[in-house]
Write a structure and sequence with these properties.
D-Maltodextrin-Binding Protein, domain 2; five-stranded mixed β-sheet; 5 strands; 43% helix; 18% strand; alpha/beta; disordered N terminus
Length: 137
Amino acid sequence: MKPMHVIACLVFAAASLGAQTVVIVSAKNPISKLTKEQAAQIFLGQARTFITGGAAEPLDLPESSDLRKDFYLKALNKPPAQMKAYWSKLEFSGTGRAPKALPTAADIVKLVGENPRYVGYVDAASVNTSVKVVLTL
């Protein structure tokens, strides 16, 4: 391998390692921490409230998002195809609906920051003062 190819591979690998998926809630939300299991329950529609008692509504990124794939593999140990099948089954039976998908991480940060009922996931670099990190994956 040529030296430039090695450097390019190392830069790409370092950038990939630097990306960190975090679960966020509004800075106004009283919750300060979620366990991986609690986040999984919310994103699977099995829990509709935070442990503090407030409503919990998950927000998703588009199906094509690499961050979405990363989140579901790390938080729920489920690949995208399995999640799609899971929600299709629940929606067909009328017992649940998939989280609302927003186009970008910036959209998730904005909506989560404005309303304490929302919970989302983004890259750690997207976090601002309107939200707080409650779980790092």
